[in-house]
Every structure is written in structure tokens, then in C-alpha cells.
């Protein structure tokens, strides 16, 4: 195994809106790790077929980047649900199936993994509560963002004080979908029509997932909702992409991690 090396600031995306007193965060790219092949290099996917030792080292490097005292990095078992959990330490047994995670425990890193879906990091610095959500189209229309906000409120956060930032996500130009999927999106959120553009023919649409996520956050009443403006599909050197892997017929794909903690 390669000797441990620090992740460089250029290997992570950070947003000024989350540069808050007592809060640390990072939307990690695929750079700065030790994985090889299709997983090169900072693959965080426990569920991938990558070498588990490499994934463990990659995740250790991410915690070190956040400059936290402990080794813990807590991620749920993501299933495209609308469920969110509150945690105060590492899971004692199996990871719960959920797509939102919240904590008020200082020094505990919570995170989600993505490879085109939207990673959203939340913080109410005044109340001392942070959250993370994995929002694909099913989660976004199903209510995972709202569930994560509600879980933060159960820990003392106020939604008008919450800052939410959407990390690197597949963008509309790269996200062609069929009419059936468009119907499913609209069934979950009729206002999503604003984020569906005509496709190459009558059976296709171009879907603006970041636009829908920001709309849901604004409708939920958070104090601030922002997007880092990076596309996972279009920036191959920086991000893993499930859709790009599918188009190439590759057997598996890496996942990037988005983490937040109370310092």
C-alpha cells in the first residue's frame, strides 16, 4: 500500500456558505487516494467492489483532511429513501438504511456517498447541528431533504438558520431521461416540470436535478440554499459518475464522499 499522504485542498470542493464558525466540511473529489483502475483514486464506496483496505485508507485520509481528533466517519446505508437518522456516534451494528444523517455531536464526521446524485450538506452553526443527505430524483421528490431538515430541528436547529449546499451533481446537459422516468419525477413533485427540458425527440427529456434540489430546499424554508456548480458526468478527472460508467459498459464505479462535522 502507498504511504499515507495528505489530501490537498485542491482535492476537495468547499463552499464559502459553509465556512461557518465551528463547522468543517468537504465535497471530496476522486483525487488524493490509493485506489487503482476504474476506482482511481479516492474511492469512498464501501459497497463497491474495490479493495476494502484501499477504501478504508481513502476514508481515513478524508477524516484527516477535516482535522478532527477521532477516526470516525459515519455514513448510512443509502437506498434512495426519504428517511433520515440522528446519530451521536458510530453505528454499533449494521448501518441503518437511510439517505439523510444528522448529528449534534462535536468531532463526529457524518457523510454521504454519491456518483451523480446530489450530496447536500446542512449546517445550523448557531444551534450546533449539521446534516448530510443523498438526493437522487427519487429521494428529492420523495422528501429526503425535508426529512433531514426535520431531523435537524429535532436536535434544536431552526430551518431559517440552516445553510444547505449542494455538492457536485450530474447537470441537465448530461442527464437525458426517458418519458417514463419524467412521469415518475412529476408524480412525486408536479413542480418538477420547471426542470424538465425537451430532449432529442418526443421520448426524451433533459432533467435539471440541481435545479429541483435547490427548489425543494427553498420551498422547505432553509435560510440559504446554494450549489457548487460542478458536474460529476462532465468532469471525469475530478468525479466518479454512475451514468458515465453505464455508458461505457464498465463493471463498477467509485463513489465520492461529502462530509460535514462540528469541529
CATH classification class: Alpha Beta
Would you identify the CATH H-level superfamily?
Answer: CNF1/YfiH-like putative cysteine hydrolases
* Helical content band: 10-25%
**Alpha plus pi helix count:** 6
CATH topology: CNF1/YfiH-like putative cysteine hydrolases
Shape: globular
Assembly context of the chains = single chain
Task: Give a short account of the largest sheet.
Answer: 6 strands, mixed
The helix/strand series, from N terminus to C terminus, equals EEHEEEEEEHHEEHEEHEHE
CATH arch. level architecture: 4-Layer Sandwich
Kindly name the structural category. alpha+beta
Low-pLDDT ranges: none
Widest β-sheet, arrangement of strands: 4-5-8-7-9-13
Q: Please report the total strand number as a whole number.
A: 14
The fraction of residues in strands falls at 15-25%
Alpha carbon gap, first and last residue = 30 Å
What is the typical, i.e. mean, pLDDT? Answer: 96
Number of domains: 1
What's the gyration radius in Å? 17 Å
Short description:
The chain has helices at residues 52-65, 137-142, 144-154, 179-188, 209-220, 242-248; strands at residues 12-13, 23-28, 73-74, 84-86, 100-103, 109-114, 118-124, 129-135, 163-166, 176-178, 196-198, 204-207, 224-227, 256-262. The protein is an alpha+beta fold and 263 residues long.
Describe the protein in words.
There is one protein chain. The protein is α+β, with helices and mostly antiparallel strands and 263 residues long. It has a single domain, classed as 4-Layer Sandwich (CNF1/YfiH-like putative cysteine hydrolases). The chain is built from 6 helices and 14 strands. Strand 11 (196-198) and strand 12 form a beta hairpin. The protein is globular, with a radius of gyration of 17 Å. 48% of the residues are buried. The model has no long low-confidence stretch (mean pLDDT 96).
